[in-house]
Please model this.
Amino acid sequence: MIKKLINKASEIKSHEVRATVLSFLLVFVLMMAYYILRPVRDAMASDWTDSEVSKLWTLNFFISTGVVAIYGLAVSKIKFKNLVPGVYAFFAISFVVFYFFMLTITDRTLIDKAFYIWISVFGMFHLSVFWSFMSDLFNKDQARRLFATIATGASAGALVGPMIPTLFAGISGTDNLILIASAILIIPIPLILLLSKIKISELKNEDETSDTSKFKIGGNPFAGFKSFITNPYLLAIGGFILLYTMISTFVYFEQKNLLAEYDRATRTQILGSIDWIVNVLTFGIAFFATSRIVKKLGMGYTLAIMPIVICAGILVLAFAPIIVVLLALQVARRAGNYAITKPAREMLFTEVDKETRFKAKPVIDVVVYRGGDTITAWFFTGLTEGLGLGFTAVGIIGAGIAAIWAGVGIYMGKMYNRVKSDSNKE
Model:
């Protein structure tokens, strides 16, 4: 009866229930850990000027590019069954190292800035690796039906995670939150190993890709960069994500400046509260509506929904620059991304081969994303500190970027349909 109810609500077939639940739990744990760390990171930013944050985002871009290159090398050398759990174990250990540095170093400015950058790398990498794993675990039909449901695990984790800093940052301080998140990141390892077995035993997807217990991706570790540059389909995905990051950066900088008057623990609690509200709104949309939206509107218009909403929201903000409007826009942007845009975006990668998923996807998710952050951070700083433009002028520019983003989404949907059609013919 439970399986029938699940199937009616979200199109999950009976033999897919366990894999879907475990995938849901996996991304739940990952996002819970990230959303414990995220308010800690963002609370630090309000201590620094726009120029300082722009410099950090520039460093972040170069560091992210280097990490992706190293990951490409690891993909070429390490067996697939060890690669994904190894990534999460590595990040867990790195956060423990940061925790002990924070306890022992008196002047924490440099370590705080290093931590700020490293969390940004983790924030891009952990989901990129997860969705690569999902694209390998499920076949194309399953991805279309199940990805939106699985993505609600991210919303649920992002719902629970912020409650911890919101409730305890003022009591235990922010440093102990880092150690808690590190311990949580150990949980994904056994889940990944179990899902690798279920892929063959229950999903019967051994014919889709090679046996993950023996498979090792070979080839050039820099093949992801080459594939991205030479593949129009990947370039279109990269353009869509670049425009998303530009809008995100505009809103982030305004949020940072509005919170500057509060102390760090209070900022952490406020940001945790915002995260919690975002994911309360996101959860129901993603679980019940997203897959049906994709089927009803098609990929192109699904990708264009949030850009159109954000364009309108930024125009409202430009002429009514008050904190309530800004926070409402932030909630709409992030909830729409997790509930609609990101699941649809991840479906795009089901139409590429395995090496592209594991090598080119991190280039797009990390390098392009952080490159967009860097370009827009300096652009924003130039508009505010350089040209001295006010909120209204900056908002109108942001709305124009959102309109272009919507057009790219529609174009991306047409490309997806062509690639899918060509793949079916083969």
